[in-house]
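Order emerges. One example.
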Amino acid sequence: MTLSDAVYLAAGIGALGAAVVPRVVFRRPLSMPMLFLAAGMLAGLSAVPTVDPVRSGPWVEHATELCVIVSLMGAGLALNRPVGLRGWAGAWRLLGIGMPLTIAATTAAGALLLGWPFVSALLLAAVLSPTDPV
């Protein structure tokens, strides 16, 4: 089995799991992210080859970009809000007030408390900003 075959197999198992797992865990004290986290931990403990992110930089970068795109698309599709300004008022407040304040506070903490350069502190704040509620 080549590396591309293994990647396609893992993507297929993940897609199948994303389609089947929600129906299996419905009304149970489990969630799909919990099961996928456990599966990832088991895969990490098994004989899956390790990837050096420095040596395999472009491949790892594209894989993480794909994961972010898929997870954001899944979160966006799961939103159950009516169309209109009134239905999205809470999200707009989080986006316009909560997220910028959190980014500013985290940037200040990184720069002042940790002594990091401003750009590094801003990058930390962008990574840690609460985008899920938005």
